[in-house]
Amino acid sequence: xxPSLLKSTAELLRRSRGYASSANPERKVAILGAAGGIGQxxxxxxxxxxxxxxxxxxxxxxTPGVAADVSHIxxxxxVKGFMGDDxxxxxxxxxxxxxxxxxxxxxxxxTRDDLFNINAGIVKGLCTAIAKHCPNALVNMxxxxxxxxxxxxxxxxxxxxxxxxxxxFGVTTLDVVRAKTFYAAKAGVPVTEVNVPVVGGHAGITILxxxxxxxxxxxxxxxxxxxxxxxxxxxGGTEVVEAKAGKGSxxxxxxxxxxxxxxxxxxxxxxxxxxxxxxxxxxxxxxLPFFASKVRLGKNGVEEVLGLGExxxxxxxxxxxxxxxxxxxxxxxxxxxxxx
Length: 340
Hints:
By secondary structure, this protein is α/β, with parallel strands linked by helices. The protein has two domains: about 30-170, Rossmann fold; about 175-330, Lactate dehydrogenase/glycoside hydrolase, family 4, C-terminal (L-2-Hydroxyisocaproate Dehydrogenase, Chain A, domain 2). Helix content is about 45%, strand content about 15%. It has a six-stranded parallel β-sheet with strand order 3-2-1-4-5-6, sandwiched between helices. A three-stranded antiparallel β-sheet has the order 9-10-11. Strands 7-8 form a two-stranded antiparallel ribbon. A hairpin with a 2-residue loop joins strand 10 (about 290-300) and strand 11 (about 300-305). It is globular, with a radius of gyration of 19 Å. About 50% of the residues are buried. One of its GO terms (molecular function) is L-malate dehydrogenase (NAD+) activity. Homodimer. Pfam families: Ldh_1_C, Ldh_1_N. It catalyses: (S)-malate + NAD(+) = oxaloacetate + NADH + H(+).
């Protein structure tokens, strides 16, 4: 990468996400699944983040090459690659944030639920290692189905005696990124100024964008437009899977979303005030034990789980419709954690 391009990329990241440029504490970030379709671009983006001083890349295979490649980028983070079960502990040791994109991707016709048996087992093993080697780290769960993998992680940590509800996050940022993009295009407003909260879960109808709370507000959208935007946000993953015609799922946009959320976590850890992102966390916002909503991040992870705000009738109906499916996914994760 040419120095001018690196400089402009870093500057773009700083502008778009408010990356800090002053001195910050040493922070280690570990990416589990770093050689995969999400893991590789995510590794690149985290290498560019000036808040990261040490970047630990882990996968079952291929990591030395990814680490060597990324390490040549002239940004401050020191990169190390780790491969195989025997190096997992070293990869995790001392991590402040652990990001988990590990697992198999979706293929055409495959629902997130189809991913369950494979990815659930992978997540369970990785979380067992996290409990042992870096129990105080913030854990950012990307591996699908998030509605089930986050409860699995919670149960693994509970069994190990290390569970802290403030430090476990399901990364639903891609739903927010999509909602912002689709809303901005339809409403004709600058995408960089848009914010749209997305609540519920991270699959199909459990994804509920709250366009009534979108900023800047738009009077140009009909109810039909809002319903179409809602459905497109819910089906965003399928849109990419079909467009890639069997050769992959949402990897680049997911890597970007994962980097955005990890950056927010790092800012919170560093004491930057008023860092708010949507995330799937342990929650009392509804009767469900886990739920995605806006969360204020701080030095301990979750500082505050924020409420849903005022919902319109369409959103209230969507909220009631999603609860059954989300409840089932959560229970499926808990059952897997105890039964396998």
